Amino acid sequence: MNEQLHQITLNFADGVTHQFSVAAGSNILDAAIAAEMPVLYQCRSGGCSSCICNLTQGEAVTQAGASASLLGSEFDAGQRLLCVSQANSDCTFDMAYGSEVGSTAAREVHAFIDSVERIGSNVMKLTVELAEGEWLEFRPGQFMQIVVPGLGVLRSYSPSSTQVNLPKMEFLIRLLPGGAMSTFLENEAGTDHVLTLSGPYGAFFLRDEHKRVPHIFVAGGTGLAPILSMIDTLRQSSGRKPPMLLSFGCAVPEALFSQEDIELRQQWLPSLEARICVDREATEGLHLGSPVSALREGDVSNPDTVAYLCGPQPMIDAATQRLIELGVKAQNIFAEQFVASH
Amino acid sequence: MSDQPIIRRRVVKHGISDARANNAKTQSQYQPYKDAAWGFINHWYPALFSEELAEDQVEGMMICGVPLVLRRVNGKVYCLKDQCLHRGVRLSEKPMCFNKSTISCWYHGFTFDLETGDLVTIIANPDDKLVGTTGITSYPVQEVNGMIFVFVREDDFPLDDVPPLANDLPFRFPENSERFPHPLWPASPSVLDENAMIRGMHRTGYGNWRIACENGFDNAHILVHKDNAIVHAMDWVLPLGILPNGDDCISVIEDENGPKGLMQWLFTDKWQPVLENQTLGLKVEGLNGRFYRTSVVLPGVLMVENWPEEHVVQYEWYVPITDDTHEYWEILVRVCNTEDERKKFQYRYDYMYKPLCLHGFNDCDLYAREAMQNFYSDGTGWDEEQLVATDVSPITWRKMASRWNRGIAKPGRGVAGALKNTSLIFKDTADGHRPGYKVRQISEE
């Protein structure tokens, strides 16, 4: 039975269908990569959810000994992580992204530091420029891994800039006491220092197929970076701009950053509304409470509203629950949690 | 890759002085405008005068880097992208139409429906599987009082989202007479008014459309008209310049469903005409007050009320062709309810307005804009210019346009003017043909 092949069908969001075969008991993602399917993935160990998709026909289960970060309820609803799944029959999966998305392969590039600037009590803005002859493509919301010079360890950050700004890229980086990247940025980083980056990674990105419906963005701390990239991409894209609501928060007013960038975008985009939140010590014009608490009745008037959330896990959980309560469909909520790495 | 040396790109650094009216912060506020070298797309633009397109005639032109072909059938004007989807030939270069509902590419016979742009057949390959599955972009057309307007859209801009033409035309009177009172002159006519008679001309300007557009409502530019014949023949008081008196000198209009633009409160106490410069011993000697008012709306339409005479209004467009050419439109509008009034307006146009105003007066604007072009043509001028108080008008316009444009045109691709140094440009120039607006059709001789 081991040599039995199952036929896997992938239905991408843009209507394109791809098929490939996988041996019974074998890893579906490995077979997909071998067959050059345009699928997204990153950790290949059941953790990051980049390869998440929805089983609509057939039987696919988590491989013995593997652990998937899916909830039981999500598994029951048909969600699968391809990187830890095997097929027990012919299977059909719905992919939430278009077939051209995954064809953006990750690559390694070098970049020169243009500037390192402290923009909030614990946030640095890092601006870099890709080296001569080097290039990459990324979707707004995806992240890059940056090698911390000297230490060789990797840290993941989403550009706050867009594809249009290349060869320049901008990152918003939270400073953590004693953190590897933080120590480098505070003590060593300088103009013309060379960094090694790889990417893009991740399935958290602006969905082109939803670009005409109202958008809600909820960002906590430096979770603002991928959101700024998304807002700028919508601004630069063709046609009528959708209504956009940004709810962004930090702990205290001193921790806030990128206020001018947000104001500028409000000036450029009549359809962008911004609510700036702090957990404590709110001053005039700031909402007291989390960016989730700033969401209110009436914010979701269109049932097709799409939401993008980026921040710590508790914020994402609360925002997801609140948005569903307000009328956003679960499948239209896209989230990325960021994990603090020292 | 690790064997390759890692090399820094060429770095260009600019410092922006804070003493300028356009300091770094102000500049960032109109960054989208700085990005709009090829114009604002998804707007209505004038394409031709009606008299330039007879029944069954085909004409090609380019707007915002988009090649367009117009054909009139049974009186109605249709507009399609003038670039065959097969291999990019311009349909207008050698018009070929076999019926009233299509236009064919004269090279390989790809044939398109005039209304939808659908590929309906290929002359010598009617069974090809491509037929019926694809097409070229179509553009909404509106013809009014002798002018043909086209909504130049991106390929994926939904037709349902196309706004009315009036949203891309200047403020109308008398419905705005209370909002923008004009005690010194009668209500200005509109292109859309019943019995509006429109006379004017269009010609190619050699420079970026923004340079041309800003000239019209820049209140310091009137110095270039100091020595114009009509000013002296009519003994007009045309100031050396006009200075703003306060922040309320310009109103920005952002009505939800209407034109977006700005109105300048000229000839009120909000602006101070400058009639003398003692340092240079200059003084304006005219006798007759010449009141006028300029306003501008997206996508770059100038209105000069009460100009050149009462009951007449001058409109101008600076329709982007490429990033360094634009079609300069000047029209004069007057409501003429009788044949007699029409005749009189025509006579006045032929023997006064056209020679003395559109040519004598506005020719100065044309060369003044060209004189500015080199400074801006490589992009550095937008960073290096040092604007002053009187430049409040262009700065306000740039910010307003950054906010309300419906899209920034992408640089032209696969079209004339996308590259500046091709052999075809040299050939045409050597043959005596300037870069221009309309497509020169192939003649069989």
From TrEMBL, chain A:
Known cofactor(s): [2Fe-2S] cluster
Domain FAD-binding FR-type residues, every copy: 106-207
Example GO molecular function: monooxygenase activity
InterPro entries for the chain: 2Fe-2S_ferredoxin-like_sf (IPR036010), 2Fe-2S_ferredoxin-type (IPR001041), 2Fe2S_fd_BS (IPR006058), BenC-like_FAD_NAD-bd (IPR047683), Beta-grasp_dom_sf (IPR012675), Cbr1-like_FAD-bd_dom (IPR008333), FAD-bd_FR_type (IPR017927), Flavoprot_Pyr_Nucl_cyt_Rdtase (IPR001709)
Pfam families, sorted: FAD_binding_6, Fer2, NAD_binding_1
Keywords of the record: Iron, Iron-sulfur, Metal-binding, Monooxygenase, Oxidoreductase
UniProt domain 2Fe-2S ferredoxin-type: residue ranges: 6-99
PANTHER family assigned to the protein according to its UniProt record, in alphabetical order: NADH OXIDOREDUCTASE HCR, PROTEIN RFBI
Protein's name according to its UniProt entry: Methane monooxygenase
Organism: Pseudomonas alkylphenolica
TrEMBL record, chain B:
SUPFAM superfamilies in the cross-refs: Bet v1-like, ISP domain
A GO CC term attached to the entry: membrane
Span of domain Rieske: 44-150
UniProt KW keywords: 2Fe-2S, Iron, Iron-sulfur, Membrane, Metal-binding, Oxidoreductase, Transmembrane, Transmembrane helix
InterPro entries to which the protein is assigned, alphabetical: Cholesterol_7-desaturase, Homotrim_ring_OHase_catalytic, Rieske_2Fe-2S, Rieske_2Fe-2S_sf
Record-level Gene Ontology MF annotations: 2 iron, 2 sulfur cluster binding; metal ion binding; oxidoreductase activity
Entry protein name: 2Fe-2S ferredoxin
Location relative to the cell: Membrane
Provenance organism: Pseudomonas alkylphenolica
